[in-house]
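Hey, I was hoping to borrow your eyes for a little while. No rush at all, and the record is pasted right below.
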Amino acid sequence: DSEDKLKTEIEEWLPNELNQGDKIRLLDKLIQETLKPIDNAIGYSVDDKKNEEEEDIDSDVDSTNTSEGQAETDEEVPSSDPTMENLLDRLLYKGVLPRYAFPTDVATFYVFNRNSSTPYRPAFYFTPGQGLPVALSQYAPGKEVWIANQRYTSGAIYSPISFDRYLAWTNKKLYYECYICQYAKTELISDGERGETRDCPACGGQSTFGAARFWMRPPGFAHPATLDPGTSPDDQPVRSYATRAKLVASSPNEDGLWS
């Protein structure tokens, strides 16, 4: 049983100074106490789940005359179970897990091995990674990356997992920035249009907020497979820095609060 195995492993980690009674109480409540902060973070309640299941059963009994076609339609409705959301992001947001120990925003720079790669299974010589804030400066398309005394040029946003590329593009947003006060904001694609300009909600500039551009979170970067690396000893890597943070806080609605 996996639960017994987990308890055995945890018991081996416990200090010898802990008395046997405390060890037993700790191990007996291990699963329950571990799941409690997770349930609180995702707003999940066992009692609520049971009530939902009972309501579903009552609904099924009352709808015995429902057609088969209607049943198939109901099956396609996505579940509202909070556990179906991105659990890791939720636990990080709620503080259940420490962010410094879980570097989730990591972008990789891929250098292809053309001899070993196939159209459906790429192989790589190097795959260095950086936290996304640093990678946006060091690996952005057009930047030069030095690895093993060879110069590689970032030329693509890439991930070996095709679904990651699809997801990154599907979740793109519109990026607005005021060219006067540099106030910036992202909007859903449905809430704007690429190339449009708006009045700035921060400084009040007319048509200074934009033009809107696509904004996406890159899954990774790559050196073009057809481009040979540079080896000139006279070449020096370009120093690059992250741009300063953009203000994305919501603005006060009352005009009187601005001076």
